Amino acid sequence: MKRLFVYLLLSGVFSACGSNATYVDDSIVAEKCNIDRVLDNDDFDITDLIDSVRIIRLETTDGSVLSTFRKCVVSDDFIYILDNYKGGGVAVFDVSGKFVRRIPTGNGPGELAGPNNIAFDSSKNELLVCQNVIVNKYTPDGIYISSHKASQPLSQLVPYKNGYLAVQNEYCNSENRFAFLVLDSVFNDVDTYYFNEQICDIFSEYISESSEGEIKISRPLVDKIYKYTDGKVVVDKTLEYPDNKLDLSDMDWQNVSRYINKIRESKNKFCLMSYCATDNYEYYKFYRGHMNANVFYNKTTKKYRSGYYIDNFESINNVGDLLGTTYNEFFISTINPGANDYYFNNREKIIEYNQHLLNDDEIAMLRELKEDHNPLLVLYSLKDIADE
Question: What is the pTM of this model?
Answer without folding.
Answer: 0.87
